[in-house]
Amino acid sequence: MRLSILSNVNLDMLSGLLKKENEVFQTDGYGEWITYALKKDERLAAFAPECLFLLLDGNALLEGCQDMGSVKTVLDRSEQYIEKLAENYSASYLVVSTIDVRPEHIGAGDASDLAQASGAYWDTLLTGLAERQKNIHRFELRCLIEDYGRKQFYSAKFWYMGSIPYDMKALHLLAEEMRQVMARLARVPKKVLVLDLDNTLWGGVIGEDGPEGIVLDSAHEGAIYQDTQKQIKKMQQQGVLLAIASKNNSEDVQSAFRENPHMILKESDFSAICADWNPKPVNIGKIAEELNLGLDSFVFVDDNEAEREAMRIQQPEVTVVDFPTDLTTLPAVMAEVYENYFFTWHLTDEDKAKTMQYQQERERRKERESAVSYEDYLRSLQTTIRLAPVNDNTRERAVQLMNKTNQFNTCTLRMDELALEHYLGEEGGHLLMAEVSDKYGNSGWVSEFLYHQDGDTAVIDNFLMSCRVMGRKVEDAILDAVLKKLQADGITRVTAAYKKTAKNKPVEALWEHLGFTQVSGDEEQKQYERKLTSLPETEQIHTKMVSQRSE
Q1: Which of 492, 493, 537, 483 is nearest to 519 (CA)?
Q2: pLDDT of residue 26
Q3: In whole angstroms, how far apart are CA 486 and each of 120, 314, 416, 538?
Q4: Whether 431 contacts 420, CB under 8 Å
Q5: 410: phi > 0 → left, psi -120 to 50 → alpha, else beta; which?
Q6: Global pTM value
Q7: What CATH number belongs to 192-344?
Q8: Taking the domain 2-186, which CATH number applies?
Q9: What is the pLDDT of residues 242-278, one digit of tens each?
Q10: What is the pLDDT of residues 478-508, one digit of tens each?
Q11: Is residue 473 within 8 Å of residue 542, measured between CB atoms?
């Protein structure tokens, strides 16, 4: 990754540690971070760092401050500088550190209280910055220092030699933490955590011990499993889908969740439950099919090594977590699972509602199975599609959707917020988003239609849709509404493309299905067109199109 480090202290040695596997831009002096904020540096801009770290030493930043009033003045001004820094380098991730203030380096009589209050005040400012500027992310420098120990982290020797505040071991720890941050920024998060039950979510075997006999109270070993469930519950609230793959009788599993008073997780927290005696690799395949998600988005946790090995061999796309030999570390391991595989910097409303949305989909499947015909099923859903131009409220979701959607994605066009802004502005592009709801609930903003005009021709740059709404003819309804809009705008011809990827097989024949004619191309890329001189009347028995600008 291309990165640069800004600081108010000398961190050249840290840059050196990261140069082995990254391109590092060497800034002009360690005290010049404010200069980079006040005026965009041409050399740094040309280098185009993917990640720009701002690591601030608390005591150097607050030098001379004797009370909270002077602290707030300095930190408020620093907040303004960082906001300008984020604007100057908006195409970069700006990772800003928390601050650690050492009381022994403060001259005030209430040094300890002032140090603590200073760090807390900066935390508040940093939270606000991250909410206002989407390219700003938080770096937990103070937590790293506290975990390692202040006395070991800092080095008086290095400080007096060259204004380097940290010990050599601390610099290595800091470099490793920065590598993890960059890895999180670069990766696509996983979606589903599949869990074993016996000796994983609780101690003991439910089939032998019964719902009251499993180990899950608030003391000793039971407390370990409770804390583990609390971590998993937190993950679910942050958008991680939970599933169960357990070799047990389903009735026993139900009784555990419904009858044990110490259970933190509930049946409603899980998007899929497979409790039977089938091989777990087979069941995880069924779960993937049920959720309509690729196996590469799954993470599997099981205390049994034989089960983990079977999963690695039979479902190699699934990420298998090493279960800890020391049970007391299990809650911490689950926290690491989230950080390593599921962490996302910004949570959308759709992320938080994922579990509920997949539960709603389960009810739809039940109705589909019992319906007399497919058309009767679609009609019974009472689907409504709201089609609206992207705006400030939906922009973040738009970027997330186009970078996470793989199966229903005609051209797999990826953009960050800056690229999207350029597409909508200089390139003259349009982005329509579709929000889908029915009698079971709201699926959220789940589809995007990108196009630009070339005379009387509309060029479809991409059409994508979340797998959550596939199989309901939502795509037909969206295109019908869009084509009618384009026709009303004076468009007489529409062109589209299909660009093959490893995962978008489901849309290979989409354009033919939607009435387009192939005009050129091969297996890897195909071009299509459709005349709009006249549009056939289509009966939308299952949708009501609402075309309006979102507020």
Answers
A1: 493
A2: 85
A3: 53, 48, 26, 16
A4: yes
A5: alpha
A6: 0.64
A7: 3.40.50.1000
A8: 3.40.50.1110
A9: 999 999 999 999 999 999 999 999 998 999 999 999 9
A10: 888 889 889 988 999 999 999 999 889 989 9
A11: yes
Tokens of 246: 């357990």
Q: What's the Cα-to-Cα distance from 246 to each of 205, 255, 379, 432, rounded to whole Å?
A: 11, 14, 37, 42
In sequence order, which residues have a C-beta less than 8 Å from that of residue 305 and are 6 or more positions away? Answer: 323
The helix, strand and coil proportions of the chain, stated in percent and rounded to the nearest 5, come to 45, 20, 30
- Structure tokens belonging to residue 249: 């009788």
What would the CATH number be for the domain defined by 372-547?
Answer: 3.40.630.30
Give 450's strand partners.
431, 462
How is residue 282 written in tokens?
């087979």
Residue 235 in tokens? 């993950």
| 108: its two tokens | 């005030």
Structure tokens at 177: 């933490």
Q: What is the residue extent of each domain of the chain?
A: 2-186, 192-344, 372-547
Fold: same for 2-186 and 192-344? yes
Q: pLDDT, tens digit, for every residue of 194-221?
A: 999 999 999 999 988 888 889 998 788 9
Contact of 98 with 126, CB cutoff 8 Å: yes
